[in-house]
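*** Query protein ***
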Amino acid sequence: MSNLARRLAERDAEIGVIGLGYVGLPLALAAVRAGFRVTGFDINPDRVARINAGEPVMAHLDTDGLRAALATGRLRATADMTGLSRPDAILICVPTPLTRQREPDLSYVEATARDIAATLRPGQLIVLESTTWPGTTTEVLKPILEATGLRSGRDFHLAFSPEREDPGNSRYALADMPKVVGGDGNIARDLACLLYDGIVARTVPVSSTAAAEAVKLTENIFRAVNIALVNELKVVYDALGIDVWEVIEAAATKPFGFMPFQPGPGLGGHCIPIDPFYLTWKAREHDVVTRFIELAGEINRRMPHYVVERLALALERQLGRPLRGARILLVGMAYKRNVDDVRESPALKLMDLIEARGADVTFHDPFVPVIPPTRAFPHLAGRRSTDISPQILASATAVLIVTDHDGVAYETIVRHARLVVDTRNACARAGLASETVFKC
């Protein structure tokens, strides 16, 4: 057994986690709980300081768990990338967004690779967790690291293991999730499996880093395509006067051959709206057309526009007035329930579209007190969440439910709002029926 393998097996190795966001920080905490020493690296010094102080940095994070990890003395965070020579294994958990032209933006991965290369030493294990197109690990990351003169498989080891973090999911914790692992060679794969075997319930080795990269894309494309399907069904059933949620609930009673997905106002988050286009981009390089994936993306991107049209229709039918000049209270700014993440959130697009139609928009979100800066909607940054009260609800022309957070006073909304347009079926799920509720 090599020295690195022995240290991983005995949990005597030090782990470095680059990127202390929604993926990296939970992974760092899980590694500490498993007995490893962990140094977290992040380019945001404010976030580093708050983590080291044990302050909450995201809504769904177990802050008590963070403080317990710090108390062990085995966790620290730093913005100093020169310390990357110290960890025995380095896990890369940085963003992989799209450009405005919907092409992969690997600038964070490339910058991180250069930081690692500056201090790379023999014997280190480097694992990329960021979602990307098949081939990235060996075609982008590996050449940057090998420009040092060190060679993958001989001097250092390189692997890919896709993150499967699901923010706000209380049923499946990171440590309970099987971990797919692919290596640049069998030794790298086995070392990465040895590392993750100490952190998660089970590892699933695959034949290559490209196969592991494809696994992650397949998981998210599966969700994107099926969400597009139920979104399209919602449009059809709306036209037929049929409640799509009732149909899905009844169909889900079939014990085989059907898996329920829920429609909504559009896709959000750091995975599903983005990851499929990493594969469509790579497919074009091989002269392959991904019509099915691109159609799903088109349907999902159109949903905010459909919601605005349904909102305008509801105002006309229920209140006899146009959208222009209306006061709309948008409930939910995060992309999914019970998180504070607004990345790619359809709520941002909806706020922009509704205001473009001449309406005034405010929002309420218990997890998002202030809209942070975003690349697509910088002009919305700084807007603050308003409280929900009978007076505020009564003063709004309509309430648009975009994110179905738990703990929102839906009963108060239905009782006091003149019109409620519900894109998540939140009112019905809460047992609230009223002529003022318009499903969308």
Remarks:
- The domain at 3-207 is CATH 3.40.50.720 (Rossmann fold).
- The chain has a mean pLDDT of 95.
